[in-house]
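FORM 7B: Structural annotation worksheet

SECTION A. Query
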Amino acid sequence: MISHDVGIDLGTANTLVLVRGKGIVIREPSVVARHKKTKDILEIGVAARRMLGKTPPNIEAIRPLREGVIADFDATVSMLTYFIKKVHESGTVIPKIPKPKVVVGIPSGVTEVERRAVAEAALAAGAREAYLVEEPLSAAIGAGLPITSSVGSFIVDIGAGTTEIGVISLGGLVLGKSVRIAGDRMDQAIQSYFRLKYSLLLGEVTCETVKIETLSAITESRDKLTVVRGRDLETGLPRSIRISGGEVREAVLPILQQIMAHVVEILEETPPELISDIAESGIYLAGGGALTTGIDKMFAETIKMPVNIAKDPLTTVVRGCGRLLEDAELFSKVRLTKSR
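SECTION B. Predicted structure
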């Protein structure tokens, strides 16, 4: 029996699954809902995300990955098992074909213990062999950068749990940094800002929605306005307020500036020959953070070089995993960690 190879972007907020030759077949939130005492899985993915902040005492809706690494091993295995089975049993590929070869994107800064946990989770979920690729490399491949040549490439992948920064040449990371400051920190900053300014407590999902719909990294001539609903901390009652994009930017700007500082730090450490290549081609932004309005202009003003947003930045990591599965020559040139 033959199995189709699978690439997985195991993200803090979302998990994407790509089947070789078929493209991306699953895009679902990395959320698991389960019974607190029995640990029985109730929902996974989209259905589980709808339960965030709404569960009764006997049920918990959790994100099993935090800041790019596994925080709950059993929930992660359950989630991966569900996605792999869904791919093979839904008729998307061929019914009931077992044990695929899996390539998983992981943060570049994970420890050996964390790396082993991801590999073991993939194997426990049904993979016959698991290969791990660092996310800056995979994102660069997915963005179409010439990673195997001697020309230097610079990529910044702003996800939910981590920001991955990488200088890449000759199929490997020359310099890499995994910063646990990303989309989740922005959500927390928004929550803290409106709690302090308006004594209004917003939910986790509401903060993420506000960020996606209104955040701009630069000052715009017309601010986006939206209405948010939360709990008034003084009265304990529901309350609605109208907020502007400028307020959201004020809340999130310190986070964006921290990310920028780490990018500048890596640029300062980059060898001169590579920095000349990067100055010509520019840096590339990927991940959900790359969709922030004006973030490319903000970066360009600071680093004084071109800034490009990768095509379909949300899928660059999983598309990079897919290219590794499809291109045997590329697969042999890129440094991967194998577990079986």
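SECTION C. Observations
Residues 184-247 form a domain with the Actin; Chain A, domain 4 fold (CATH 3.90.640.10). The longest helix spans residues 245-269.

SECTION D. Sign-off
Analyst initials: ____
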